[in-house]
Amino acid sequence: MDEFARKGSVNLKQEVIQAGWCVSCGLCADMCPYIKTVEDRIAIVHECNADEGNCYKVCPRTATDYSFLHRQIRDSDDYDYILGGYRKIYMARAINNSHHESGQYGGVVTALTAMSLREGLVDSSLLTANSVEDSRPEYVIAMDEENVIRAAGSKYVVYPTVRGLYQREMSQKDKTLVVGRPCQVTGLRKMQHYTSVAQGKKVEFIIGLFCFWGLEYAFYNYLEDELGIHSITSIDIPKNRGAIIKTSSEVHEVPLEKVRTFIRRGCHSCFDPTSELADVSVGSTESETSWCTLISRTEKGNELVNKAISLGVIEVRSYSSELEEQLREAVRNKKARVLLEKHETVSVNRSYLRINDSLQEKLKGGSVS
Amino acid sequence: MIRNEPGTTVILTGNEAMARGAMEAGVQFCASYPGSPCVEVADVLIRCHDRGIYGEWSTNEIIALEAAAAASFSGMRSICVMKQNGLAVAADFLLSLNHSGVRGGLVLVVGDDPSAHSSINEVDSRHFARFAEIPLLEPSTVQEACDMTRWAFELSEKVQTLVIIRVVTRICHARGNVVLGELPLVSEKIPRIEPWDRFFCVSLAHLAVHVRQEQAREVFEECAFNQYEGPEDPVSVVVTSGPSSLYAREALSLLGIREKVGILKMGATWPVPRNYILNHLGKSENIIFFEETDAFLEQNITSVMAQFGDRKYHFFGQASGHVEGERGVGVGEMSTNQAVKALSKIFNIDNPLVRPNTSDIKEILRGGLPERELTMCPGCPHRSSFWAIKTALELDGREGFTLGDIGCYTLGALRGGFYLLRSVFCMGSGAGLANGFGQLHRFGFNQPVIALAGDSTFFHACIPALVSAQYNNANFTLVILDNGTTAMTGFQPHAGTGLTGQGTSTGPLIIENITRGLGIKTEIADPHQLKKTVELLYRMLKKQGPKVVILRKPCSLEASRIKRRLYQVNPVECIGDSCGCSRFCSRVFGCPAIFFDNEKGKAYINDLLCTGCGACSDLCPREAIYEVDTNQAEVKMA
Questions:
Q1: Residue B580: its chain A contacts at CB < 8 A?
Q2: CATH of range B9-185+205-221; options 3.40.50.970, 3.40.50.1820, 3.20.20.450, 3.40.50.720
């Protein structure tokens, strides 16, 4: 895209990081020696002197045209302005108990990843796990089922997992599967289609997660420093509840209104809660906790799902029109909020979106409750 | 230099000459904190324990002076050595010790550093002698450095107060012939405090301070270190001290007026021997002053002439604007050139032969000499520490900043430390300033503050600052750059090394035990492990109250002596300017062992300079920098 001409780290710093829109996807982090990360923070440590840079091109908060990227990954032009392009949408869950129990909402991500490694579709997978030390998110480069299971379960605090692509362990691998948040999926697609960065070519499958927002790392500081909750073993945010924080001996609940104050600012500007550019998207369903929503989007994704069904790795049911309507409503509202730049407390940025007028009008028509 | 062969001529540095002079005076006690330019005076004496000398590296200068005074009170000859900034640290004791006076000869050697070659400033410490009303000697040659030191002990005992010998870098580091004197037998007298000995600073003793000063003046009236050379009854006289007297002599010769103009070379400069001065200057008309750095002689002597002279004199010096140092009036070193310039102005000599100053060499050899920046050594752990601090502060994102301190890491103010330092003052000032910044949050200040200290600096001046910080709950992080030695002054041991100056083992004082003992949260990391160090710093910056992070790695000069590792650039993996790293290793990280080969378009590491720290290997995005198996390399060489 012409918009990337003569734009580099200086622009990334000004337009995204300092402006507060960074979502900590990790696409730029560790890509070069100038961009470093700790926890959920990304910083451009030193000016690199290059006036055009891949860091700027891959960022999901620089110019992004979802319908264009959609055309790059799918043969057809059937862009659904709410859910993105897709082939099929299912209710799904893992059949293997260990996947099911360790994962949340059906264990489908765990099952698909483990199968891809087992069947040799990929050599490695890049996942987000909770660290053994302090139960905080970290990237995991998993080559076997044991490590895939270690990464199972939802993470609510953002982490720049994709930086794992640039690490030494990854450099020897040819094909990899990445499980990521929608921003990470978008960044990966931008890398594949706007740059010649080698890591982009290694990414064989992308499993995208549903994500309506992520929390800042400061949430942990709040739990520890203000609530005195240490040695956290898990965090979950079930439907209509606050955040359930478990330690080895206690269970705490933080009210949702409080949790929401830790939502990362950049997440309010997210136009893609369902990972539209993934091969396969997975998310919770509104009704049943042991089943999830599974969307196959690309040809590759479709094959992956079919293989998983035929090998008995996952089981699927048809997605009811009622559920689909609920999902569409939620996604449409999220998108409309971004387009209208309307949020009660936080500023919203849509300047990065390249979206045509008719789509805009359709979406703005949605309810913005 | 420790041979007892009186009359033999040997070549010594000025510092060695002073140590020799002290030995010839039978000195038995030496205490010092290392500081350039005079560090070797103590370095030599401390190693001479087989000559019956006890010498120590004290933790700071005031303790050194107090320790040396104790030996003097017990009847021993003792010496204390420090640089000009150290004298300011010791000043509180100095300005009270002058009241009690001393018993055994006590000599205080102060190394001044005009042009501040290895100092933060060029303070002229002669003012302290006038301030404390104690005798001041200024050697102008290496021989005089030896002779004056020997004599200073006699003088100290005669007038019962301590004597300051003020030397400058050009005497300390110069080498010259020294005719040795006799080394006395090692004293067997047992030091002792007598039942009625009392040593007090009380205001009643103020009169005694004046009396001792007056006694010293009387001695100085006859002092052989003050010398006049030149015509009898000269019209013009140059009054000078220290190496400036050599510049004056040379300049007068170059201008062909040596026979016409007298030189009054002053060695004993405070208290001013006014009769001697009046004898030599009373009948002259033009009085010219050459000295470094301040107008000390100029002010004292013009004052004498105004009060006691019997005619109108023309004074030429800093006040008249005729005499300037290499960097301006009263700034920077003197030189023969500066003397030529001044004299030709005063005597209206046209087109004098002015040779280039050392500071002009760069201009003259432009293109012939590569630019060399002031930076840390190859493999220096400070470079990694600075990169880690810079990274952590950027990640933190609240515009945190770093307060510098005194040591090799003062270079962090420059490119080698990524211009990170926002302040540099005296020893311990980083932690001290941080105490203030650490309280500003109540006014809305939210920038994280990092104060730096070396390990030796920590022991020297940071502990009271930490006590204060813990007591008042100041918000800051003290980063102790612990390279296990006092590197900048030449690897003197300190409390944390567990070795005394004399080489005995005392068990190291563990920095973290001290800081944790104060109740301060303390973490330790290896600065060359950049990732871990960055994470640690980042997390510590988030915490409230005082914190300590110890970045511990031996000085690369020390480390490379022990075990040599080596890194190289793989020319296949390094793809030069197509990488996108913009020559990070050579251009930004800036280790002097890493170069960029413009012809090949790749980075390379000079194997003679590389110390094998491996920091660059972690930073290279293509992992093109790898460790060489040096065992194999050695086999190949054999």
A1: 32, 48, 50, 53-54
A2: 3.40.50.970
Q: What is the pLDDT of residues B437-493, one digit of tens each?
A: 999 999 999 999 999 999 999 999 999 999 999 999 999 999 999 999 999 898 999
Please answer whether residues B308 and B256 qualify as being in contact, where contact means their C-beta atoms are separated by less than 8 angstroms. no
- Looking at domain B381-559, its CATH superfamily turns out to be Thiamin diphosphate (ThDP)-binding fold, Pyr/PP domains (3.40.50.970)
Q: Which of B407, B456, B464, B426 is nearest to B58 (CA)?
A: B456
Sign of CA dihedral B276, B282, B288, B293: positive
Topology adopted by domain B227-359: Rossmann fold (3.40.50)
Comma-separated ranges of CATH 3.40.50.970 domains in chain B:
9-185+205-221, 381-559
Measured CA distances, B132 to A130, B38, B123 (Å): 67, 22, 16
Question: Which residues of B lie inside 8 Å of A (Cβ-Cβ)?
Answer: 390-392, 394-397, 418, 534-535, 538-539, 542, 580-582, 584, 587-589, 619-621, 623
pLDDT tens digits along A189-244:
999 999 999 999 999 999 999 999 999 999 999 999 899 998 888 888 887 889 99
pLDDT tens, position by position, B309-326? 999 999 999 999 999 998
Domain span(s) for CATH 3.30.70.20 in chain B: 563-637
Picking from B394, B538, B584, the nearest residue to A33 by CB comes out as B584
At B352, which amino acid appears?
P
Which residue, among A37, A39, A46, would best test binding to B if mutated, counting the most B CBs under 10 Å from its CB? A46
Q: Is the ipTM, as predicted for this complex, more than 0.85? A: yes
Fold of B563-637: Alpha-Beta Plaits (3.30.70)
Short-list A92, A136, A135, A100, CA closest to A291 = A92
